[in-house]
Amino acid sequence: MKLLDKKYKFSELTKRFKSNGEFNDVNLSLNVVYPERLELGSYIYIGPNAFINALGGVKIKTGTIIGPNLTIHSANHKYKNAKYIPYDETFEFRKVVIGENVWIGGNVIIAPGSEIGEGCIVGAGTVVSGKIPKMSIVVGNPCRVIKKRDEKHYFNLKKENMIYLKKKKENNLKPKTAIY
Questions:
Q1: What percent of the chain has pLDDT over 90?
Q2: Would the pTM count as exceeding 0.90?
Q3: Cis (ω within 30 of 0) for the bond into 142?
Q4: Of 77, 131, 144, 147, which one is the catalytic site residue?
Q5: Domain limits at 102?
Q6: Is the separation of the CB atoms in 50 and 69 below 8 Å?
Q7: How many structural domains is the chain composed of?
Q8: Active site residue 77
Q9: Gap between the Cα atoms of 37 and 56, Å rounded
Q10: Is residue 11 part of a domain?
């Protein structure tokens, strides 16, 4: 498929989102099932090959950065007291909410009903299930909190509106190499 065709198809997809904030940088390879149930804030980056099943609702808040190969599911087949095995035709909707300024590494899976609190960092390859408290740094399968962010520093930056993708757009920021 030509790049222009891909961009047009993607543009049509984003028009179907329940909401789509400003200045989002979403890779053209994003695959969304039930896009009308996907809510995006502003200044969001979603890397290549993301798959989002928004059947039960998915909300990604402002400032979130997501690495490649993300998978989100927001619904599951009913298996408890199902009419058939292994499950029946009934779905259980369980909304996924990703808080403001969350950083999600590559190859992360987010299960139905998960809530990732504001300012969290989710390590690469993590499987998220359940509620993750704000400012947590989580890794593993199943995920576990390994430490917390510096809340004072985080909220000072937030107060000054220092959202990375916002500042990148405004100031044409370029990646730098950290010196240790």
A1: 81
A2: yes
A3: yes
A4: 77
A5: 22-171
A6: yes
A7: 1
A8: yes
A9: 7
A10: no
